Amino acid sequence: MRPVSPVNDDVVRLVGIQDTPLSVDEVLKSLDDAGSGGLVLFVGRVRDHDSGKGVTGLAYSAHPTALDRLRDVCARVAEEYDVTGLAAVHRVGDLAIGDLAVVVATTAAHRGSSFDASRALIDTLKAEVPIWKHQLFTDGTEEWVGAP
């Protein structure tokens, strides 16, 4: 996977899929500007349970088109919502409990637009970007989530 890199766009500032730990600071830095009165940040972490089962760890896999799809999602959200900045990064590879799996953030002149855009960004990312989660459970079973 290519590392996260800044995007040459006034609104979409950072988009990436990477196999190294995610940085909230990098996301926040990419969205730093004087015109933003509100910044909404969502951090998705690996939890120790799912559907009533204990989770020991997981791995994310991405389709070769995932980064392009993530860029498309970011561009659509930027067009649809009144935001001044937007960033989205997702992790792939083996992750442990507590690791950051996804970080999305938006900035806007006012908080309402940023809250709405951030929810749309994470929800659309999860629905449309071909990234799949392979969960390992404490009972020895496993499950693929989001796989076609």
TrEMBL record:
GO molecular function, one term: molybdopterin synthase activity
Domain of life: Bacteria
Pathway: Cofactor biosynthesis; molybdopterin biosynthesis
Keyword vocabulary terms for this entry: Molybdenum cofactor biosynthesis, Transferase
Reaction(s) catalysed (UniProt annotation): 2 [molybdopterin-synthase sulfur-carrier protein]-C-terminal-Gly-aminoethanethioate + cyclic pyranopterin phosphate + H2O = molybdopterin + 2 [molybdopterin-synthase sulfur-carrier protein]-C-terminal Gly-Gly + 2 H(+)
SUPFAM superfamilies in the record: Molybdopterin synthase subunit MoaE
Protein name: Molybdopterin synthase catalytic subunit 1
Complex and partners: Heterotetramer of 2 MoaD subunits and 2 MoaE subunits. Also stable as homodimer. The enzyme changes between these two forms during catalysis.
GO terms under biological process: Mo-molybdopterin cofactor biosynthetic process
InterPro entries: MoaE_sf, Mopterin_biosynth_MoaE
Signal peptide range: none
Assigned protein family: Belongs to the MoaE family.
Pfam families reported in the protein's UniProt record: MoaE
Function: Converts molybdopterin precursor Z into molybdopterin. This requires the incorporation of two sulfur atoms into precursor Z to generate a dithiolene group. The sulfur is provided by MoaD.
EC number of the protein: 2.8.1.12
